[in-house]
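Open question from group meeting: does this chain pack into something compact, or does most of it stay loose? Before anyone orders reagents, we agreed to write out a predicted structure and look at it together. Recording both the input and the output here so the notebook holds the full record.
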Amino acid sequence: MKENPKKAPHKGEGHRKRLRDRFLQSGLDGFHDYEVIELLLTLGMPRRDCKEAAKAALNRFKTLQGVLDASPADLCLVPGIGPVNLLGIKLVPAVSRRYLQQRLEGKKALTNSRELFDYLNHTIRDKKRECFVAIYLDAKNRVIADEILFTGTISASAVYPREVVGAALAHAAAAVIFAHNHPSGDPAPSPDDMAITRRLAQACGVMGITVHEHLIIGTEGYFSFADHGHMARINAAVDSL
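Structure tokens returned:
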């Protein structure tokens, strides 16, 4: 009986193996952004050359971050990318967000600010609309949960103190941290940001809930109301009422 000839390796198989071996040996050090995208594409298409598709995606969305943040519909407009092989591109950021979230839960948020900022960066920094996030803390300032409460327009988010307080009570929170993003990239607070922080602190204070922080996240960094002394002054004013 005649044996079937050995199947020829597909185009790029050796290159793909080298990429994987490089990553397993030293992480992403030395990788070009298109090579990172290529590696992600191979998770959904293990037997297809993805280099040109990766380069086309980077050309279209300009940066690795742009590719990772692109919608599935927009990614499918890139030649060589379809519903199957975009799996890795969308899966990895989602896994990263969950990983950071689970690292936060149960920890003292006020002594783990770097982990908090890292999580918020992945969650809201690059959203095209303003998103308002509440992080709920127990009596020992450990993270209970977090959620995006409001999503606004490109320039503003409508934040309703009654709904914020209701959500905090539903989580049995003793304290909260607020955060929102500035799609403009500049994290400096606006007069509206200052006003809503005061309103939220007053509304929460009536129910015995402390507001520890309000973070504004932008592509140029972040602004901390607590670090700049605003929360201390706001909370002192609430206590005097």
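Observations to bring back to the group:
The chain has two domains: 13-94, 108-239.
The two ends are 93 Å apart (CA to CA).
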